[in-house]
């Protein structure tokens, strides 16, 4: 039996896989403009590590790789690889400023627990890699 997707005839626009806040877009556009890379975007990815099992990563990237999901939001090109997408689906990239400085962060509805540092998270369907997931934030 083959599964078939029917076209969406409801007229509703599907939600993007990942978004960026207005303030995040302002900061990202400023960084992208000064990067010297034509057609660059913000690559958002997940890697094993951190104190909760997974870590967020971001980089300026002018390459579009096979399997990438590319979303344009608020004038920013966001690139997500096919392995990271399931863990990032529905997330919002933001920029926060506090007494320690500022930086990009990810508001991820898939994270069921996260480290106090905000750079590391875990989902219900994931286990931390062996030797990780315990201790404080010093592991990043």
Automatic annotation (TrEMBL):
<dbReference type="InterPro" id="IPR016092">
    <property type="entry name" value="ATAP"/>
</dbReference>
<protein>
    <submittedName>
        <fullName>Heme biosynthesis protein HemY</fullName>
    </submittedName>
</protein>
<dbReference type="GO" id="GO:0005506">
    <property type="term" value="F:iron ion binding"/>
</dbReference>
<dbReference type="GO" id="GO:0051537">
    <property type="term" value="F:2 iron, 2 sulfur cluster binding"/>
</dbReference>
<dbReference type="Pfam" id="PF01521">
    <property type="entry name" value="Fe-S_biosyn"/>
</dbReference>
<dbReference type="GO" id="GO:0051539">
    <property type="term" value="F:4 iron, 4 sulfur cluster binding"/>
</dbReference>
<dbReference type="InterPro" id="IPR000361">
    <property type="entry name" value="ATAP_core_dom"/>
</dbReference>
<dbReference type="InterPro" id="IPR017870">
    <property type="entry name" value="FeS_cluster_insertion_CS"/>
</dbReference>
<dbReference type="InterPro" id="IPR035903">
    <property type="entry name" value="HesB-like_dom_sf"/>
</dbReference>
<dbReference type="GO" id="GO:0016226">
    <property type="term" value="P:iron-sulfur cluster assembly"/>
</dbReference>
<feature type="domain" description="Core">
    <location>
        <begin position="18"/>
        <end position="118"/>
    </location>
</feature>
